[in-house]
Amino acid sequence: MPKAAFSLDTVPSFDRAPSVVLITGDDEFFIEEAEGHAAEKLGADGAEVLKFDDEAPAETISDALLNRSLFSPRRLVRFDITRLLGTEAPGKLLVQAVEAWEKKTPASKREAFRRVRALLSALDIPASGPAEEVAESAAKRSRKKDLAPVLAEIVSELPQEKGGPAVLTAALRLFIDRGNDGTVALVTATAPPPGVDLLAEIEKKGLVLEASVGKESGAALSRLARARAKEREVSLDSDAIARLLVATDEAPGLFASELDKLLEWAGAGGRIRASDVRENVEDEASEDVYAFFEILGRRDAGESLTRLERMLTPGRSIYRGDQLIDTEEYWPVRFFGMLADEVRKMLLVRSRFEEAGAHFDASMSYPTFQARLVPLLTEPIVPFGVSPFANAAGQVSAYAWYKAAQRAARYTTRELAAALARAADVDVRLKSSSPPLETISLYVGELIAGN
Questions:
Q1: Which of 76, 134, 222, 321 sits 20 to 30 Å CA-CA off 394?
Q2: Do residue 163 and residue 206 come from a single domain?
Q3: Residue 216's pLDDT is what?
């Protein structure tokens, strides 16, 4: 089966599932989150659910796969197969193992053992030899020679594993070929390398779901931040999360990397505030003109002025939706033209609804807007024979006017008319070398204040 993005809709019911459902991705947090949701769906209707951690003997997991349940016609077996597939980043595994080991808690010790098992499996190094030799070989091949002494400590205390990965791999291959006969394996793997035979077999006969996040994934990244902070015993302010999302442009990899640096900086028992993010994270995020308009529509003075400063910062990438804007020539003047045009649209659409006695508020759904209010915007004006809401092609963009109406809903017609009247004077001052940021900030502040 082809790989698909994870969602509850892509998870089949137990009876329709293949023998193996693999959830994979680059970050363990999102993999585990998705696996939990998938387990709820697959384990419904009374299935026996067996969940094994990394310390479970391979032979025990193999028996659970190959033998039928005595208590239910359905059995769901949950475990991680990262160590069976390997990883493209053994050096990262080694660093993570050492970091966990140095925390010296029972949970972190188990985490270190899990990372080391995955490391040795990825490098195809048996753990049965002398600890110093195993550690030296693994550290050398991971290009982390300086970590060999700590790795040797971990290997020396690594619990002996019965059966080993080979036993479980053989059982899983047999299980894949057998198909769903009442038992389904729900397995996970973090960043598996392409081209592994076992992964290819699962892709061919099972189902592979990708648990990852893309851009504009603030809610998911916020959950990640809170979970990581709780693990590290760090207090993380909501404003700090919001600031980090902005600074990293909600790029998952960059967000996670900067978050880890902040948590390390704060230390157990520490606290991270928005000011700490500003001081410790380099802000290279892009800005979107439409996002600025949305904040302006909420009459959020603080965020509007912060975003405005970012919009006018030289060298920052500025977008209008998906379109990258050239900010080399007269950008403050051109940006203010966009802002004034948005105010004009807000005034125009609000005035039209008031004139027609039509009700609109920011909570109105788009389908309702289309059905009730768009007809008012498409009426032609005599004697021109065209609507003032139409574009150059004579078409009325319903969604664009819906967004303008949402922004206008929190302003009065008087406030918008006064702001539009001031726009001409601001434009003249900008073209007369007035400081752009101060001039436009004053305009925005007066608009939001209703002056």
A1: 321
A2: yes
A3: 53
Sheet holding 20-25, edge to edge: 4-5, 207-210, 20-25, 183-190, 75-80, 48-51
CATH code for the domain of 414 = 1.20.272.10
Beta bridge partners of 188: 23, 80
**pLDDT of the residue at 243:** 84
- Burial label for 291, CB within 10 Å (0-12, 13-18, 19+), is middle
Co-location of 54 and 193 in the same domain: yes
Write down the pLDDT at residue 352: 92
Whether residue 215 is predicted with pLDDT greater than 60 in this model: the reply is: no
**Helix or strand or coil: residue 4?**
strand
pTM above 0.70, yes or no: no
C-alpha–C-alpha distance, residues 248 and 407, integer Å:
26
- 77 shares a domain with 166: yes
Residue 343 near residue 443 (C-beta atoms within 8 A): no
**Greater confidence, 104 or 350?**
350
The Cα 134–Cα 148 span in angstroms is 9
| In contact, 225 and 260? CB cutoff 8 Å | no
Structure tokens at 407: 């922004």
Q: Are the CB atoms for 423 and 343 separated by under 8 Å? A: yes
Return mean pLDDT, the chain: 87
Structure tokens at 228: 């990581």
14-28 confidence digits (pLDDT tens): 999 999 999 998 888
DSSP state string for 62-87: HHHHHS--SS-S-EEEEEE-HHHH--
How do the residues of the chain divide into helix, strand and coil, expressed in percent and rounded to 5?
Answer: 60, 10, 35
Task: Please indicate, yes or no, whether residues 19 and 156 belong to a single structural domain of this protein.
Answer: yes
Q: Tell me which residue range forms the domain holding 263.
A: 218-280
* Residues 289, 302: Cα–Cα separation, whole Å: 17
Residue 355 one-letter amino acid:
E
What's the CATH number where 198 sits? 3.40.50.300
| Same domain as 275, residue 422 | no
Same domain, 137 and 24: yes
Q: How far from chain centre, in Å, is Cα 447?
A: 34
Q: Which of 416, 348, 409, 403 is nearest to 377 (CA)?
A: 348
- The structural domain count of the chain equals 3
- Residues 2 and 98 reside in one and the same domain: yes
